[in-house]
Amino acid sequence: MKYSFILLMAITTNVSAHGLHLFANLQQNHIDGRAYYVDQTPASYEQVFLYDSNDKLLQKALTSQEGTFRFKIDKAQNFKVVIQSDDGHRAETQITVIEKPNLSPLEQQLQQAIEGKLQHENPPQNCKTEALEKNLISILQQEMQILKEQLHHYENKIRGHDVLGGLGYIFGLAGFFMYILTKRKT
Amino acid sequence: MHIADGIISTPILIGSSLLALGGVSVGLKRLEPSKIPLAAMLAAIFFLSGLIHLPIGFGSVHLVMNGLCGILLGWVAFPVMLVVLILQVVLFGFGGITTLGLNTLVMALPAVPLFYLFGRDLPQLDQKTIFQRGCLAGVLGIFLGSLLMSTAFYFSDQKNFQEISGLILLFHIPVMLVESIVTGSILTFLYQVEPRWLQMNSVLSQADN
Fold first, then answer.
1. A156 to chain B: nearest residue by CA?
2. Exposed/middle/buried for A136, CB within 10 Å: 0-12, 13-18, 19+?
3. Chain B residue closest in CA terms to A67
């Protein structure tokens, strides 16, 4: 599974509208994701669609009560995940796979470990090391998913300074219009 | 009630944007300097109400306050809501850029009949009637807006939304109830504390005459 390492390099770009946010993470053979509204309410039982890079619909799924979903995939490629809620909200996220042809020695070792091809100098008599490596990689991927999701939440959080900025724009525009209209009258 | 990009068909987007532009022009013509403080205050209320979410069933809806804007501003609700929607899409990603015109139309168009039905003689009424009219304006503002939204979905070329356009009205029933109470309460509060804000309506009515 050569693309396992490439999966670590997958990046997502997000487009969400009206407070519906979509997070999706590409794992080895599946895409895990979660959809939620701006007030952190999960987008439960909503339709999620998986498209390829040519906008061809590949799969459909329904979010769970917690807003999570999963797509099983055959091969790593660029994907687009779209959620459409029953009340007219929509969000999408792009998953772009970055191929990195020139790997550093450490990256090559990591890739071989993922593919199970890493040769030990003194191979142990039991298979515990191999199982441990697989477990470690699985744990790392899960931790990375959690981190990415937390980062996604943080980026989409409504901040007080944005609200104050919006109010500032409103009253600033009001003052500007008042000045223009009063000047025009005089 | 914000409609996202990529859902509505292009002819509806263009048509609604042109209608919204017309509404904004009429609203700007009727905007007097004396009305600007009230317009700014209502713009701020409209801006903040979009951040107040009500979890409904498996989803989430938000307050709109177009009933309050309509009963107090009339046509001026168009430029006010356009400005606020632009800020909401830029700062929070609510709605979409291509759907600005449609969103403005959906939220501001119901405001106009509400002004002519309930707002013109507001200063002459007693507190109880003002509260009742506020409640009615709150309900009708959301109802008409949801109706416009459902119509836009129904006539768009997204088959999925044609099937669920009726659900949109259903989802907004709790919002209608909350907005009726809030709008009625705000108008009653203004009547008690600062009745000259209600007298702004007579200035707007004189502009029509």
1. B92
2. exposed
3. B58
Q: Check CB contact under 8 Å for A182 and B55.
A: no
Interface check A160 vs B, CB under 8 A = no
Q: Do B33 and A46 touch (CB under 8 A)?
A: no
Which tens digits make up the pLDDT trace of B121-178? 877 888 899 999 999 999 999 999 988 988 888 887 656 666 666 777 777 888 899 8
ipTM: 0.81
User: Which residues of chain A are within 8 Å of residue B160 when distances are taken between CB atoms?
Assistant: 47, 84
Asked if residue A22 lies in contact with residue A91, where contact means CB atoms within 8 angstroms, the answer is yes
Closest to A25 measured CA to CA, from A107, A178, A168, A147: A147
| Cα–Cα distance measured from residue A38 to residue A46, given in angstroms and rounded to the nearest whole number | 16
Distance separating alpha carbons of residues B48 and A166, to the nearest angstrom: 9
- Per residue in A128-185, pLDDT tens? 677 777 778 777 877 887 888 888 878 777 788 889 999 999 999 999 988 888 888 7
